[in-house]
Write a structure and sequence with these properties.
alpha/beta; D-Maltodextrin-Binding Protein, domain 2; 2 domains; 10 strands; 37% helix; globular; thiamine pyrophosphate binding; thiamine binding; SBP
């Protein structure tokens, strides 16, 4: 994600050891995110202002490791409170890793998209998107996922995530001619066969930071990218452009760790980060579309180019089917991981 002031540095741990205010408190409220770019903006526009407003101390940790969540729950020693999660995990792990939420305690809930399952709070509108090097293809740019797989017309390396749930299968099937309305259930075999056709030209990335490095260094000429990360790379000097046609749309999602003794503080935090002002700031710093429908961010030209909430962009979206992923993620991850490692 893009950062406050468009600086890309990993956040250091924030907050301190002072106990948080409120019933059931047991130390500071801990937010766990993806690390890197996400952490800096989280600290600047969420954590520090929340502490200032509520006097509830906060601490940061990263990355969001599900094995650590399980270990905390199994031991009964809950150290984390609110965590960024892949949206389908908010369905799969609802009630086991994550608390079923009382919507009445989230003051902004009627201004947000529906909760994801009963455990996930959508905090923005997020796109997995085709981006391309305009220096190389500016005169005849790609316009679809079909072009992502056309090495004759658009030679060069393609950036692709090692995380299959990041629109990877959807992009391959769209590139192979599947209509958006016929995309689900996903044909995993067909998607992998499509990637086989360009595998020698795939450069895998395992993190947002590595994705940005590929784009900014010129290692790739196209990428299936996280749109907010690309806008930061553009601000860093990369001459990449987005293709909004058939971008794959979902939400960044946060959830509350099951059994946290800081539940009331966590509800206050969830309400805070989804209020109009914080959503406005989040969208301005990241280019991820505000989830709160009342938020009206002020965007510069780059921000507008990468704004997932722009109606002209949003109408071209293919919505990620979280229920399919909740049911099939283990098979999809296993198959894709084995293929990508070959």
């Amino acid at each position: 994600m893009a950062l406050a002031g468009f600086v890309c540095l990993a956040a250091t741990g924030c907050g301190g050891g002072a106990p948080a205010a409120g019933p059931g408190s047991n130390g500071p409220l801990t937010l766990v995110d993806y690390g890197g770019a996400t952490s800096q903006v989280s600290k600047e526009i969420w954590m520090d202002p929340f502490t200032k407003q509520t006097n509830i101390k906060m601490r940061h940790d990263a990355p969001n490791d599900y094995a650590k969540v399980k270990a905390q729950i199994d031991s009964g020693k809950i150290a984390w409170d609110v965590m960024f999660v892949q949206p389908y995990r908010a369905i799969v792990d609802c009630g086991t890793y994550f608390e079923k939420l009382d919507k009445s305690k989230i003051t902004t809930v009627d201004r947000l998209p529906p909760l994801i399952g009963e455990c996930g709070v959508p905090i923005d509108n997020f796109a997995y998107i085709l981006v391309y090097d305009s220096k190389k293809f500016g005169q005849n740019p790609p316009t679809s996922w079909k072009d992502f797989f056309d090495l004759t017309k658009y030679p060069g390396k393609r950036g692709l995530s090692t995380a299959v749930a990041g629109g990877v299968l959807e992009a391959a099937l769209l590139g192979d001619g599947v209509k958006p309305e016929e995309l689900y259930p996903l044909d995993i075999d067909r998607a992998i066969r499509k990637y086989d056709s360009i595998k020698d030209n795939i450069s895998f990335f395992e993190s947002g930071a590595r994705q940005m490095e590929q784009i900014e260094s010129g290692d790739v000429v196209m990428s299936l990218a996280w749109h907010g990360r690309v806008q930061l790379s553009v601000r860093n000097g990369a001459e990449f452009k987005p293709v909004w046609n058939q971008h794959i749309r979902t939400h960044d999602t946060v959830a509350m760790i099951k059994g946290t003794p800081r539940k009331e503080e966590a509800y206050k935090f969830l309400s805070f980060i989804t209020d109009v002002q914080q959503q406005k700031l989040w969208a301005e710093k990241t280019s991820y579309g505000a989830a709160n429908k009342d938020a009206q961010p002020t965007l510069d030209q780059v921000g507008k180019e990468f704004d997932s909430n722009d109606p002209a962009h949003a109408e071209l979206a293919v919505q990620l089917d979280l229920n399919w992923w909740a049911q099939h993620y283990e098979e999809a991850i296993d198959r894709y991981t084995k293929w990508s490692a070959q």
